[in-house]
Queue: 2 jobs
Job 1
Amino acid sequence: MEYQFRAIEKKWQTIWQEKKAYKVSNESTKPKAYVLDMFPYPSGAGLHVGHPLGYIASDIYSRYKRLKGFNVLHPMGYDAFGLPAEQYAIEHGVHPTKSTYDNINNFRKQLDNIGFCFDWDREVKTCDASYYKWTQWIFLQLFNSYFDKQQSKARPIDILETAFEKQGNANHICPADASLSFTANDWKAYSEKEKQTILMQYRLAFCGYGEVNWCAALGTVLANDEVINGFSERGGHPVEKKKLRQWYLRITEYADRLLSGLDTIQFSEAMKEMQSNWIGRSEGAEIDFAIQGHAGSLKVYTTRPDTIFGVDFMVVAPEHTLIESITPNTHKAAVAEYIGYVKSRSERERISEKKITGCFTGAYVTNPFNNALIPVWISEYVLAGYGTGAIMAVPCGDDRDFKFAQHFNIPITNIIGAAFNGEEANPTKEGILSNSDFLNGMVQKKAIAIVTQKLEAMGIGKSKINYRMRDAAFSRQRYWGEPFPIKWKDGIAYPLAEKELPLLLPTVDNYSPGPEGEGPLANIASWKAEHYETNTMPGFAGSSWYFLRYMDTANDTEFCSRKASDYWGQVDLYIGGTEHAVGHLLYSRMWTKVLFDLGHIGFDEPFKKLLNQGMIQGSSRFVYRIRGTQKFVSSGLKHAHEVDALHVDVNIVDGVELDTAAFTKWKPDYAKAEFILEDGKYICGVEVEKMSKSKFNTVNPDDLVEKYGADTFRMYEMFLGPVEQSKPWDTKGIEGVHRFLKKCWRLFFDEIKGKVWVDEAPTAAELKVLHKAIKKIEEDTERYSFNTAVSSFMICVNELADLNCHKKEILSPLVILLTPYAPHFAEELWQVLGMKGLVVDAAYPVFDAQYVMETAKEYPISINGKLRANILIALDASEDEVRAIVLDNEVVKKWVEDKPIKKLIFVKGKMVNIVI
RNA sequence: GCCUUGGUGGUGGAACUGGUAGACACGCAGGACUUAAAAUCCUGUGGGCCGCAACGCCCGUGCGGGUUCGAUUCCCGCCUGAGGCACCA
């Protein structure tokens, strides 16, 4: 009987479904484990082999935890709102609801094929009204809350209103405008609109104005990615910065807690580093510089007030509101021209530009300590959104300022003596200050506080903590997203009542943008008539809390009952790509903190442990067409011709050799293709790039499952390498894993004899092989080293085959070990062995060290660090005994000759090194 | 440009805490079985040198330095691939 994987896999998938084998209850006496994947966006291209990598890893871990006696929550769903469905609707007229649900059905079919243990009763789709009702509800919690700085937590906004009525805002500094100040009487005298405008500046979800990349021709806002050199990627239309009304989340209020929370969770150091760099906390000071011949002052933010005497110029962002009024007429034309140039540049281009650009405004400020005149420049590398949008430039201490000064021939003041060599800036804080008046002779880092205090005393500065992170833009001028539960009346935003939720996304005939940068919803007369908000929420809204919904999917009175969230708690293992490092992972952490602060859940970090899966890249193949002909030249000969490289479908290429017959059938264009071969073959070019349909380098898991079975596919994806590592896909090696399963099968069945497994007592050697495997595979699974676990299975089966072992007592624990990795295969063999119940409900075998005891070791003997011999020595030998044995060895004697031995290093159980 | 991360045979990778580099596979070569094929099994396989062979020697983990008895692993500099940089998801 041979290994008929297709029949076996279908059979067990059906049985699992019938028996509800993967249904998970919220009631259990077992300890819980919550194992979660980042849910996919259901794209029209379907699943490619890159998607299941993380899902297989989490599936293995879930099944492993279940065998270890845990009640395991392992759900799946879809992040179903987003731009591609809307784009598709605009281009093809298909409603996003339809295309999204079609895609979901397709994803589901593909996922089912692989045999995952998801509890599908808990499926969530963020575009379902039953789901986004609660996204809207959480938005209202954010809208109706403020961040109390004293308690460092979110609190209901009516507490703040009560406080305002009693004491004004004296104890509640306004996060949006620290200078805002009013008394209780002021507050009482304010109109409703004035009150609401003030409250808006405290809310965690608030409305304001922000700059976006605006493309007038497309009538839409673009991502930085979609803007190339000031023109839209699609269509090549000009793009400009434009101020639009936007919703925001006040995530900056949570900056410190998002930072300190990192200490309580198991993310990789790299991930923590990325998040804290993104948050970018810095301590410094704000300083006001008086403007020459102007009533106002220029406020800058600096982390280095100690360098105040080294300030040679100021740089302000081109968007800075003061520019208009400080620029004298003589410089207006040049400044306007420069601002025009910057307007066409995306933020990305501005900060990554190597070329130094800038423009002198003609204005000067004065140094508050010595009244020196300091010229004011504008340059694109200073961004309006960070700090105060203006910096003081100290060329001797800052690299970018130094290059700027050099480029524009601005004289450089040296305030750190020999520490500055005139060739490059020195950002040290250890320098001894000179040319610095009252600071002369002082170490820089000590001067920071002194300068700040002095500025505070003079009333022109104060210490300030700044964050690089900005508040999160939370509205999109799009259709396919959650409507905001907000009505506008007389310029005031009113939240809908909870019982009015969900506010359903209306059907439209036209997905194109509304007038004046409004979303498509503005095109609907009935929507406008109700004064509903016309923006929708961004893609990250639904994904910021979905892990909570899985705990209590069917609940239609709460987003998730407190009982359910108390039971499941944090996600124990979260698997997904690093591309979400600073987006999704920060937003979901913030939402969790808000829900915790408001008492809706009992933990304030969502993910206890994060595992980042690497990206599976595509390995693209190219053919080379001689320009202007239908002749295709093999890769090795292409240099003799003028050729265009064209992507060719990887599925019609064997390794690098093109199937020329298949190629002529692949596309009608190529029907008449002629080939110039080398050694009788057409060899393709190779490049590793992102897996994408348009590059014809995608590999569909369905085809592989069909050909080799789901279990082979699962193990092969794991065998490719460490889950965390990115690697190009190559189908070639899958045969090896398939052979392994067939070989394993032959421990149970022989093609001719049929059943060969027997009920005999195992030998010591057989038990040793088994227990070695138990130990290694358990350890590897625990540390998510699935690739080495697979190779341990191979070693185990190879050794059992060499021993001719077909004993049930060895094979049945092996089947359990295999269950997480090859569940169908294991289930079938479990039944074959006549074991009770489903193997998914079995108990994990327990390692027993007595079977793997070793008494001696083949020690590697190095001389001066070079391996010269291997000697078998008893493990319990003392160092003196080992020394005697080693020095008596022929090979060792030959190398040592009669030189004195300086040192002998003996590491028990590892190695010996002789130094001569 | 900035942040993060990777680079080991022809290929994917292993070496977990500084201790035998190349486990386990793929591929390739040779052989067995077969009318033939598939399947399966056996042997070899980092590069170089000496050699009939065995034994053995030298080099080798992107490049250049350093620390150490000992470095794929730690430190410094460089080259290079990947991901992210706020409206793609």
Job 2
Amino acid sequence: MIMQKRLDYSFNGYQVPRASRSPRGRGTVRKRPDSNRIQAFDILASVAGNLLQKNQSSIPDNAASAKDPLAVFGINIKENKQENQVGSFKEEQFENGTCSEVVSGCVPSLQGKHENQRVAGDSSFHDNHLEGQGQNVIEREDERVKLRSTNEKTIRIKNRSDGLIEPSQRASRDCSAENHVEKPSLEGHFRRNLDSLPNGSGTRKLLNRDDDENFVRSTELNSKNKIPDPPTDTIKVKDASPFVNDENNSGDNSVLENSEMMYPFKKRKFFYQTSSSTSDSWSHCQGTVDSSCTRVNGTNHGTGGTMHVIEESSSIADEEVHPESKGCNVKLSIKSFKVPELFIDIPETATIGSLKRTVMEAVTTILGDELHVGILLQGKKIRDDSKTLIQTGISQDDKRHRLGFMLEPRHNRISSSYNEDPCFLTTGSQPKLSRQSTSLMLQQGTYNVSRERSTVKIENCAEGDLNMVSSLGEASANNNNMSKCRALVTVPAINMDALAVVPYRRKSGNSYFGQRRIRRPFSVLEVEALVQAVEKLGTGRWRDVKQRAFDHAKHRTYVDLKDKWKTLVHTARISPQQRRGEPVPQELLDRVLSAHAYWSQQQCKHQFKSM
DNA sequence: TTTAGGG
DNA sequence: CCCTAAA
């Protein structure tokens, strides 16, 4: 109990993104009263959000990144060229990224440090330098930060090549603003990519239209560029459809495929969730830390490297726990969570987009589920939640022990009634990949997790836009790595045992019903796919539309498509100013109206005939 | 199961 | 997105 409470405090100290309500205030954010879980989730959400953000922000021209896009996820891929078509990726021990990173000390407030930290921290999301220079904490950059009290900490997570998820920055807002700055930052990658696009002008236009939407547009653009056959608004009569539609252009699927990577992560504002219990001892400590993120106790754990240490610094009192240690609180600053190692099995011929999507799926699939925070001490999982920190050995007296935090799914098995295929690699242009070959492979098996099960959380994320997260799958339980990085804790991510410890009312079968699905705004690409399909099939054959253009998007039902069409028509009819969400190109909206008019007319004719 | 529409 | 009557 106490342990939990302490953890809670710690998390309370972080500013984690909070789910925001949908623009129209219709989305329902359902949170469970379990604050611990939710907070942990939120953190994860932010992690995922960043993961996604980065993952989708085009391919960095960073050599390393380009070579190993998964690196940012701490995913090691081993390509086995022996198997030509389907490269097989085998398990590979984490070289350096299997630990959670924890740094003790108070988390500094970021006030007035945004720019600074951001720049420094973003120099490269691929390097390992981490906040070597005293930026041991992650921060979330957002105007709202300014509003927070100095007692609040922020968490910034950024992806690291070593598998540690680290806080991140906002990629979008600065996108356009720093166009001229040449920094190897994510934004830089982003920017360069955009600039290198064939039609840079269009890009810019999009990027500058709305800061908050930059991210979306950017990714969208990138994605769009992959569309084999750019949509056209030309209307020509062909077949029974007056709309463009190249039968031979596997465009239908391609588009959709591409659209798959368009997750509902719009770069919007981040909402920080402040814990209700703000007056804990931790908070008090905060006041002693300056915004430069100076480490408490003068110890620079992991400086310049990525070692993460967790060191507890002592100080203030800790009531109830231990009389003898009264006056001492264990302060922890969790720099990063350990993320399970993921294994991706994807054909060589798969596109980068596919890879991204696959990884994306893997991450969301895993993290999207019920999450749980595991605590590890010296590599051992602490199962007894009722133990006190000191009883467990976590105290100010011992600064040597390594504490690790890991994120793990709340479930220990993959029992999914929904079974959403995590991969959407099948496309018209790509050879069909068997699901097996594309599914996410985790060390302990294929992970075919349904996202539907974690609706609550995900919804929170989704509502908060950028926060889709997911978690872990499995981490290599490689104890050898531990020696490589002291202070690092190797954790078997999907530790069955660990999971078992946490009772979880899983939604086995149908026991967990009534859960609203996650909100997943249609991406422009999806809209395009939809429009194209409807142009061809009409507005009364949603099942066919689904089959034709969204066959592999399990989360899009024909009802969804129908609903989307409905909203598209509505959107097309209202003024641009009244539209919300990710802007849909006018060209598409025009097509929507045209198609809608055409098919409505057809419908009337039919009715007339039959009469 | 699909459609079609209201909520 | 959800819920459902109707087909």
